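Async update (no meeting this week)

Hi team, since we skipped the sync, here's where things stand on the single-chain job. The sequence we agreed to prioritize is pasted below, unchanged from the tracker. I ran it this morning and attached the output directly underneath so nobody has to dig for it. Comments welcome in thread, and please keep replies under the output.
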Amino acid sequence: MKENLLKRKVEEMNLEKVSFSGLIDQMEKSGGFGAKNLADGVTILEGMVKDKKCVKFMSFPGCIVSTGLRGAIAQMIKKGLVDVIITTCGTLDHDLAKAWGGIYYHGAFEADDAKLHKEGINRLGNLFVPNDSYGKPIEDKMGPILEELYKIKKEWSGRELIHEFGKRINDENSILYQAAKRNIPIYVPGITDGAFGTNIVWFSQDHDFKLDILADEKELANLAFDDIKRGALMIGGGISKHHVIWWSQFSGGLDYAVYITTATQYDGSLSGARLTEAVSWGKIREQAKYTTIDGDATIILPVMLGALYEKLERDPAKPKKQ
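Output:
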């Protein structure tokens, strides 16, 4: 019936002296396009955080850790908004490089890459990462720590190893530091796909050092079969997103899910796949609260978190810092 379809009117926005949460509320009422999905995402995250029976997963690629968003993710952990992290090796690389004094710089997408290479500067999007800020600190610092850990035992799981590195740095803006301090597990399925993994390979060439990658999968499997609710904030696709939804299918799927992506679904990629596709696989429950938000996480996530923090501050049911 026509009257059932035409229930809500589009409301006009007024952005004078507006707060983060006020902006999100106006986006929801405006009804228009990506703004509506972004507002829905904040509502879903708020419900997920307040649900005491829900284990909160977060997945993201390492590229955003090269930006100032690293500090925002560390703050999320500190505030108790994350229970389990699944990410890529780049997160370990950038987080540790910065914790060990590496400085990243503003650059440009249009820079002359051949010239940058000659100068020993790596380009990551529109950021410049000098060799002295990335490869050198990782190579200099990892060896002594691996020697120390090797004396404790010769075989480690990826999650254990990451935790130990987090314990040995002191940086409030570090994801590894905040996770280790609060005993939040970090899983990196592709742990050899970066500088962190490569240094482990080199170390193992003259040490009987082993990395048990199946141990991490067994821990995720145990989580999958626990009688709990599950929610996830997923940024970007690939292996980190897939690990969240893959293991969730064994428990009937996620109960809450927010996905931020810049990819298109029309190439059949996991990065482009909207969350509704995951429902067909049983990776998200049919009755779940979920939304896909199209856009750059470095723009979207700060706005969402600013609004979420304001909403949680007003509500006595907000999560306690760990």
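Quick observations from my side:
The chain has one domain: 14-25+33-100+139-314.
The longest strand covers residues 284-294.
Reply here if anything looks off.
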